[in-house]
């Protein structure tokens, strides 16, 4: 997997230039080519997060005078591989991939590299060599931040040995594993028990169905943690329908609807911010630089932070997701 922590020291100059441009919300450089054709193979549009990621990428491409060729794999590995081959045939200048599966797209990745097309992965990484850069966030840290908030809330409420239900994202997905592992690390040694629920594919309707069964099987549940806010809100819906106002929920992604509940003092403990429009913006900027044969860092972290009732007012939430646009790369 891509190293999510280290940067190549020899790319320091490129990192500084990229950071400045993104921090100012400007094109990277007048020296970079305009009118590029950038391909984007997206895992799915069934999740609001990925819809907004697409929106951010489209806006950034348009602002830079580039053409974005967007193809939706709809969660189908075979379709994604066919889509990537199609984009290669179209002669894109850079290729963005958000993989359905981190292993299944490796042959198509290799084909793109063989064609001399720089490949940038976004949100989910790929288990293969040849990726120019990965743009995302530290999902393990995000899961850990939410886990620490859950532990703190239970301690403040005087609750010990709580049963916590975890509604998971997608089987085998890198983001799922990181958000799971980070959360579990935060709960280690706390005395609380995690019940790993099914994979609801980050979709609210799936989480509703899953939560109905989970609640019946675990009536003593105290907290529900979901790998994104959309699923957490689905779980919250079921809890409300069953008059279980005693159960707390927590999620990831900073969905504005979730932050609204946090602000109103509801049962939503917190979320880790994951502004998808900004992620799309950053990804296009990196793709543009890669297409210009500029050196880019292997991992571009778009940044995240925990939001709870203590700081929810600090983040604009006029859109579907709360806005969070930090200066990236710490430069």
From TrEMBL:
Subcellular location per the Swiss-Prot or TrEMBL entry: Cell envelope
Keyword Signal attributed: yes
Domain Periplasmic binding protein: 38-294
Gene Ontology cellular-component annotations: cell envelope
Primary localization class, coarse: other
Entry keyword set: Signal
PROSITE patterns (alphabetical): TAT
Molecular functions (GO terms): carbohydrate binding
Superkingdom classification of source: Bacteria
Gene3D superfamilies: 3.40.50.2300
InterPro entries: Peripla_BP_I, SBP_2_dom, TAT_signal, TAT_signal_bac_arc
Signal peptide: none
Pfam family, one: Peripla_BP_4
NCBIfam families (alphabetical): TAT_signal_seq
UniProt record similarity statement: Belongs to the bacterial solute-binding protein 2 family.
Protein name: Sugar ABC transporter substrate-binding protein
Source species: Phyllobacterium phragmitis
Lineage: Bacteria, Pseudomonadati, Pseudomonadota, Alphaproteobacteria, Hyphomicrobiales
